[in-house]
Amino acid sequence: RLSCIRNNVWLACCGVVSAGLAVLSSFGLMLFCGEPFVVTVANAPFLILGVGVDDMFIMIASWEQSSRKKEKSNVKSLLAETYSEAALSVTITTLTDVLAFFIGTWTAFPSVRSFCLYTGTAFVFCYIYTMTFFGAILVLNHKREEGNRHWLTCMRVRVDKDQAENSCLYNACCIGSCSRQSSEPEGEHPMSIFFKKYYGPFVTNKWVKVLVVLLYGTYLGGSVYGCTQIREGIDLRNLANDDSYVIPYYDDDEKYFSTYGPRVMVVITESVDYWNETVRHGIESCAQNLE
């Protein structure tokens, strides 16, 4: 927003901080419990940041709707209604994410198991911080707005009735007449107006409903067909860059040596006196017999 009072830059920054705290808490807990840290776990913060910012937007949107409906309500009732609107969707998304990653801990690959364990725990902490830390930030930001304080400096901003003499930049940065007041209620966000007046009626049209059902049926059929075409295994070429020397190596290996089958290796699990010539002859004789 252009208003120096209604601007929520610090609120958005605190939402990112909340996701960062979740990452630090989960990583610290897992390392304290002795869970090994593998390189794939370094990708987890990006997932947590995406989910944390999404939860932040849901909380802010619910707070704004509650504030518009109850201009004179106290902070407790506003926060209670915000949680009643936002907590359900945040809880459901968190539960599905946590369940998905904790199921992934059953895999036989240690690196994947560590990644799923770190990420699933981070989602739990992200939910906790969103419901506690970020809720408190919403209340503090609301008190700042009620006190007519600047979004950056938190200093009180004067209310200038005559804005025509000032430049637009000065009015946006230094004058607090755009803050929410009883005589000047804030209008709805343009995005909310778009979904309410245009997108919603369009989607609920009966012909659009039929089209959506047909598109979903097509998508479902394609998905079922795709599942029947899945092949188990992994092509090692896909793990390298297109210009890597590994790709022609695997091409030549498949072209010239695939008929020989996999290599067979023999491991001697006991201590062997390799200095003894008799022992060496015995090993060579064993290798010849296997060949």
From TrEMBL:
It is found in: Membrane. Keywords: Glycoprotein, Membrane, Transmembrane, Transmembrane helix. It comes from the Eukaryota. One of its GO terms (cellular component) is membrane. The keyword DNA-binding does not apply. It holds the Pfam family Patched. InterPro entries: Patched_domain-protein, PTHD_SSD, SSD. The chain crosses the membrane at residues 9-32, 44-63, 86-109, 115-140. It is a multi-pass membrane protein. Its main location: membrane. Residues 1-140 form the SSD domain. PANTHER family: PATCHED DOMAIN-CONTAINING PROTEIN 3, PATCHED-RELATED. Belongs to the patched family. This is PTHD3 protein. It comes from Sclerurus mexicanus (tawny-throated leaftosser). The gene is Ptchd3.
